[in-house]
Amino acid sequence: MTSVRNSFDEALLDTLCEVVWVKDKSELTEDFLWDWVTKTVESFKNRQLPNIEELFKRELSMEENQGDVEAQVTNYFHACNMLIRTNGLVSLFKTEDGTKKKCKILVNGLPARLKKKVKNEIDFRAPEAKSNVPVLFNLIMEQALDDAKIEGAVRSENGKRNQGAANNPARNNVNKQKGFSAPKPQYLGKRTRTDRIQQQVSAPKPQYLDSGAYKSCISRGDVEKLEGTDVEIVKLHQPVSCDLVGGQSLEVKEVVYLKLSLRTAAGPVNIHTPVECLIVEGDDDFLLGQDVLSMLGIDVDRQLELLAWSDGADDDDIVEDPAVSRKDEDEIKQAVELMISRALDEGFPSDRVEQLRTAIFMYDIWRVKLGDDPPAKVPPLKVRLKPGAKPYKTKARKYSPDLQHFLEEFNDTLVSLGWVYENPNARWACPALPVKKAGGANEYRQTTDYKPLNAQVEPLVGTMPNLDVD
C-alpha cells in the first residue's frame, strides 16, 4: 500500500514545505498530509463559494444519445459527483439536508419529459427519493428504461411503415415534390386545425387529432376541390372495410397521398412525407390517423396519462427556482458581504467568518427586489374571533404624493406576480401603512395597520426570543 507521502511528487513536496507549511520534510507525518489533502479537496475552489444553482444548471445535463440507458444514467450521476468534487463542494452535500439538495439538483437537470415523469413518481409513489440518492437513481433508471422502450417501439413501427411504402408500387408512382422541413412538435393540443392539405394547393380544413382513427381520412368533396393539381387518386386492389362509431361499417376503395401542414400552438408542423388518406363519402371532417401521430412521435394516450398524473400535483421541494440575472447576483453578493463586514465590526469571530459565509450562500434566499418566487412553506396561522366580533373595513385614506406613488408601484408589482388580487367584496380590510426604511432616502416598506382587527381577535400564546440569553 502506498503511503500518503509517497503519493506526492518530491518537487511539489519541497515547494509546499517552503511556501505553504513552512516546515522541514522530516517533520511531515501521514496524519498531517492526509488532513491537508482532505481539507484542500473539501474547500471551495479559489476559496469562494460559487453560485451553486447556476453552476449545476449550466454544467449538469444528461446525454441522451447513448445507446445503453444504464450507462447514460450512471454517467449522469457521475458527472454530478465530479462537479461537486471539482468545485470543492463535498462538505455541503454530506449532511442530510445536503443530500436532499443534491437530489433536487439531480432531478432538475433531467431532460424535460423524463423530469416530469420522475417528479410525478416522487410526488405520488416514491417520496423517499427526495432525500435518498440510491433510491432516486433506481427511480430515474426505471423511468428512462420505460421511455427507451416506447421510443424503440415507435422507431420499429415507423420502419415497418416505410418498408410497406417502398413495396407499394401505386404509391411509388405518385408524383413527388420537395417536402418541407418538419420540426418536432413538443406538444399538440386536444384539437388543432389543418393549415394546408397540399400538393400544390392550400385548402384549410378542420381536423381531429384524437379522433381514434388508425388511418387519416378525407371526404370525397375535399378531394374534388383538389382537382387540377398534381394530386393522384389511387384505387385499392382490395376495398378496405372501416368500422364507424355506432357499429356501422364503411367500404373504402380509393386513397390519396397528401402532404400535410398542421397548425399548432407551437407553430406550423409540416409533414414532408406524403400521408396516405382514405377517401370516405359524406363526411366533411378531416381525421388525422394514429399512424401520422406515431410518425411525429406523439402518443396521445400517453400524454393524457401524464396530464392526469400531473394535474393538481404539488411540486413540494423539487420546484423550478426563479431566474436571477447576473446583475442581481452581483448586487446580492455586495449587499451580503457588506452585512458580513458589519458583523465583524460588531464582534463576530473572524476565525468563523468562512463558516458564516458558507451558511449564508448555501441557499438561494437573498433578493434585491421582489420576483416570481414560490411561496414559503409554513403552516397557516389560525386565529379565532372574539364573541360578537364584527367585520372591519377601513375608510379611504389620503397619502402624500410620494407615499401614494410608492403604494401604487409596489402593489402593481404584487398583482403582476400573482401574489394579491383586488377583492371589492371583501368584508375585512385594514389600511396600508408605509414605513420609511432606516437610513434610506425616500425608501419605504409596506406594512398593514392591523390594530382594529387585532382588537377583535383572541390573543395567541407565544414566546419571543431573549437576545441577551438565547
Look at the structure and give the mean pLDDT.
74
Strand count, sense and closure of the main sheet?
7 strands, mixed
> What is the level-2 CATH architecture name of the domain at 178-288?
Beta Barrel
Any idea what the radius of gyration is?
33 Å
Helical segment count: 15
Helix content: 25-40%
CATH top level class name of the domain at 178-288: Mainly Beta
InterPro entries: DNA/RNA_pol_sf (IPR043502), Peptidase_aspartic_dom_sf (IPR021109), Viral_Replic_Matur_Polypro (IPR051320)
Biased composition (Polar residues): 164-178
Protein name: Reverse transcriptase
Region (Disordered): 156-203
Helix and strand arrangement:
Elements: H1 10-21, H2 30-42, H3 52-59, H4 69-86, H5 96-108, H6 112-124, H7 133-166, H8 169-172, E1 192-198, E2 205-208, E3 216-219, H9 220-225, E4 233-243, E5 249-264, E6 267-280, E7 286-287, H10 290-295, H11 300-310, H12 326-345, H13 353-361, H14 401-416, E8 432-436, E9 444-448, H15 451-454
